[in-house]
Design goal:
Carbamate kinase, 19% strand, 7 helices
């Protein structure tokens, strides 16, 4: 089958793993994502994943607990490794070969990030789970997703959210919010739309990597996007 996007960087938030819980990982949610990713692999797509850590610890909010910002950011990076391990386990349960890659060295748990090795894993059909962000404080997992997408020459970044695209305002709070089907990078910047943080967005803009923002909770959306159907909001150009 001919795919519109062959090599995909999927960005998931840590909060997406919580389900109906207030924190942590809900088993049904992580298996939901594992099965969706398996469907992409079976189509022949090459999949890399970046997961946030907000379901366990959010570095930006650490200062409220009296934790210094840099220390808090590193704690957040470790949270993403925990989520990566959980998704790795779920994927292997459904028969998908994976590699967990960490930007912070922890040999007993994950491979160190080596660009050529990561690309080789993708070429061999393994799902690569990028964890620990960029390995540096002051950068979000959105920035890590944009950086890794550029490094592995991904065709697209798929940003899974709870809503079906980018709106003029938060549709969960503002019933008058209207959805965009297509935006340019310049329009996102000028309108101040929170697609990703500006560091991540600038990386995508400079290297012309399209971003699709979509509802990850719809079982069919990932497959439809990779096949080339119009789903969510496309940012490019």
């Amino acid at each position: 089958m001919s795919l519109k996007y062959k090599r995909v960087l999927l960005k998931l938030s840590g909060e997406s793993l919580m389900g109906s819980q207030q924190f942590g990982i809900e088993a049904t949610m992580i298996m939901h994502y594992a099965n969706q990713i398996k469907g992409l692999v079976e189509l022949g797509a090459e999949i890399a994943v970046v997961i946030g850590g907000g379901n366990i610890f959010r570095g930006l909010q650490a200062s409220k607990s009296g934790i210094e910002r840099v220390q808090g950011d590193y704690m957040g990076m470790l949270a993403t490794v925990i989520n990566g391990m959980a998704l790795q386990s779920a994927l292997e349960t459904v028969g998908v070969f994976t590699r967990l890659v960490s930007a912070i060295k922890m040999d007993q748990i994950a491979e160190p990030y080596i660009r050529r090795r990561a690309i080789r894993h993708l070429e061999k059909g393994r799902v690569v789970l990028f964890s620990a962000g960029t390995g540096n404080p002051f950068f979000t997992t959105d920035s890590a997703a944009a950086l890794r997408a550029n490094e592995i020459c991904a065709d697209v970044i798929l940003k899974g959210t709870r809503v079906d695209g980018i709106y003029t305002a938060d549709p969960e709070k503002d019933p008058t919010a209207t959805k965009f089907d297509h935006l340019t990078y310049t329009e996102v910047i000028s309108r101040g739309l929170g697609v990703m943080d500006m560091t991540a967005f600038t990386l995508c803009k400079e290297n012309n990597i399209p971003i699709v923002v979509f509802n990850i909770n719809n079982d069919e959306n990932l497959l439809r996007i990779v096949k080339g159907e119009k789903v969510g909001t496309l940012v490019e150009g």
